[in-house]
Design a protein that fits this description.
Length: 295
């Protein structure tokens, strides 16, 4: 019963709060590959706006995406929305994550996104800049008011342990990693470590890139059966699975308004323990350490 309550709680809130202290929606929005083509820019902008209107106020982007094009799209899509009600996340390239470049990178992201602060700034993946240097710079950006919090992405357990052992490493606010129903390696030791430290996980590729990362996922009998039972789409079932995991915030990406609305509505789907057990049998989490899945 306690576990069930915990699961429900995890499904109803994300661990992040906006600058005005409001809860961040349980489902966020990704932006990889968005904003890159003039022909689809407006449609993608409207898709993000539809998502925000549905409560998906966390938007994830990166200086890498379209070399700034996705950040520019976010700047456009968020026009007219109260800034303090949004939760904007961007990422710095590992080779910009040192004292020489990070401050310029951050300024450039802010300029493209038409904002004067980021809610969360992430190290995109670990490179050759020492973690301690990145952490020190992130803390300086916080002190300057350019970012409210910082985190990391694509760090596996050993890297996380190294980070958390640094004097200010415990201030890390998230680890953004690949996590979907057919890729559950993080459940072995990374997710338990992050939960123990109360660090939420942002699940990227939550739809396995519309099933492209795992052939047959969307059409699998268990996913189809649950979609039918809940009057939902297979994509919504994949999100509902992640939302049932405490401390996990999925960030699906869509350039289509009808999809972003469906993604937001997935938060209302509650999978029962029996249904979760069925998914578990069809897509079991590994019982041994596997390398962190990365795209
Ligand atoms: N930190 C990292 O290294 C890293 C790596 C990868 C991704 N990310 C972040 O995570 C986000 C999500 O990952 P992702 O973009 O790779 O893949 P994803 O969200 O798993 O899948 C995106 C694909 O799903 C489709 N889709 C979205 N909603 C749908 C729905 N309701 N029904 C059917 N199809 C739907 C989209 O097409 P439509 O546009 O047609 O809807 C698109 O083809 C990224 O955009 C990015 O922000 C971070």
């Amino acid at each position: 019963m306690e576990e069930e309550n915990e699961r429900k709680e995890g499904a109803n809130m994300s661990a992040f709060v906006t600058a005005c202290g409001a809860a961040v929606g349980p489902v966020g929005q990704g932006t990889w590959y968005l904003g890159e083509h003039p022909a689809t820019f407006r449609e993608e902008c409207n898709a993000l706006r539809a998502g925000i209107e549905q409560g998906m106020n966390l938007i994830d982007t990166a200086e890498m995406y379209g070399e700034g094009a996705a950040e520019t799209l976010v700047g456009e899509a968020t026009r007219g929305f109260a800034r303090e009600g949004l939760f904007l996340v961007s990422k710095v390239y590992p080779f910009h994550a040192g004292r020489r470049d990070i401050f310029t990178s951050c300024e450039n992201s802010l300029r493209r996104m038409h904002t004067d602060y980021l809610d969360l700034y992430l190290l995109h993946w670990r490179g050759s800049v020492p973690l301690a240097e990145t952490v020190a710079c992130m803390e300086e950006l916080k002190a300057q008011g350019k970012i409210r919090a910082w985190g990391v992405s694509n760090l596996d357990t050993a890297d996380m342990e190294e980070l958390l052992a640094l004097p200010e490493g415990g201030r890390c606010a998230t680890d953004q990693v690949l996590y979907h129903l057919a890729s559950r390696g993080i459940e072995y030791d990374l997710l338990p470590l992050l939960r123990e430290r109360s660090i939420p996980v942002m699940a990227y590729c939550p739809l396995a890139q519309a099933g492209r990362l795992r052939r047959g996922l969307m059409a699998s009998p268990s996913v189809q059966k649950l979609a039918h039972a809940h009057g939902a789409t297979p994509a919504q079932i994949l999100l509902a699975f992640l939302l049932a995991q405490p401390g996990v915030v999925p960030i699906p990406r869509s350039g289509k308004a009808h999809h972003t609305r469906q993604n937001a509505q997935a938060a209302a789907i509650r999978l029962t323990p029996d249904e979760l057990a069925m998914l578990d049998r069809a897509f079991p989490a590994p019982r041994y350490k596997t390398p962190l899945d990365i795209v």
